[in-house]
Amino acid sequence: MQIRLFTIPNILTLCNLLCGAFAAVSALLQNDLVSAFWFIVLGAVFDFLDGFSARLLKMPSPIGIQLDSLADVLTFGFAPSAILFRMYLGAESLWSTDVYVGLGVFILVAFAALRLAKFNVDDTQTTEFCGLPTPAGGLFCASLGMLWQMGRLPLTGEAVVAIAFVVALLLIAPIRMFSLKFHGFGWRGNELRYIFLATSAVLIIFLRAYSIPTIIVLYIVVSTIRWVCAWAKCPEKTREA
Fold first, then answer.
1. Do residues 172 and 114 make contact, with C-beta atoms less than 8 angstroms apart?
2. Which of 38, 121, 144, 201, CA to CA, is 20 to 30 A from 215?
3. For residue 217, what pLDDT band results from cuts at 50, 70 and 90?
4. For residues 162 and 192, what is the distance between their CA atoms, to the nearest angstrom?
5. For helices 107-121 and 134-149, what crossing angle results, to 10°?
6. For residues 232 and 227, what is the distance between their CA atoms, to the nearest angstrom?
7. How many Cα atoms are found within 13 Å in the side-chain-facing hemisphere of 218?
8. Taking phi first (over 0 means left), then psi (-120 to 50 degrees means alpha), and beta for anything else, what does residue 131 get?
């Protein structure tokens, strides 16, 4: 079987991976959480473009699927964990300053790997997700790091570790979360997506730096309400999904 390594989608995926590496270096070695955040944002852009280009050029491949997950573990798992760890080291703690407690934030890497492995074998996640998507979790943590370093979000070391655990659990939660993949450009079938994107645009305009974590929290809340309502209507079907 001939395997093509350097296709356009794969190159874009590698760009995503490199952004994750640069973000981790910025956080751990340079203590620059603002640059780390923007590297993760750029990685998310490449993560979108690799799938988009694969569909546009009709070049999907098994190696591309695996490579995408490997890149996502680094960019949206390890790099955000590095940001949280740097936050823990610089934040005041209420009861412990032990560096080994701060290592607990790296649970995010492990659960991101579990989330992506499940996604690769779960054929029910074609139109929606089961659990928080790893890019959303990574961007949430990275945005908190940026706000913290800018002095706009005071957090204790214990709060940083707690955030890592909460996000990690959301990654593997059974909550069905809606996808932003559009089915054509019509309104029917895409109502929630259009409303959510419009709301997100308004939040970006008015909240600026605070918009990213706010949008992701809104995404989690809306998805949870939607999932609970679906479960109430048809618990058997929701449990099977």
1. yes
2. 121
3. very high
4. 31
5. 160
6. 9
7. 18
8. left
Mean pLDDT of all residues belonging to the chain: 92
Phi then psi for 128, rounded to 5 degrees?
-155, 170
Percent of the chain with pLDDT over 90: 76
Using CA atoms, how far residue 226 sits from 198, 233, 239, in Å, is: 18, 11, 14
Contact of 196 with 222, CB cutoff 8 Å: yes
Whole-angstrom distance, CA of residue 20 vs CA of residue 83: 11
The amino acid that residue 141 corresponds to is: C
Partners of 51 in beta bridges: none
Where does the chain show beta strands of DSSP type E?
A: 128-130, 176-178
Identify residue 148 by its one-letter amino acid code: W
Q: Which amino acid would we find at residue 207?
A: L
Q: What is the DSSP string of 172-234?
A: T---EEE----SSSSSTT-HHHHHHHHHHHHHHHHHGGGHHHHHHHHHHHHHHHHHHHHHHH-
Q: What is the largest CA-CA distance in the chain?
A: 58
Q: What is the pLDDT of residues 59-117, one digit of tens each?
A: 888 899 999 999 999 999 999 999 999 999 999 988 766 888 999 999 999 999 999 99
Read off the tokens for 185. 């450009």
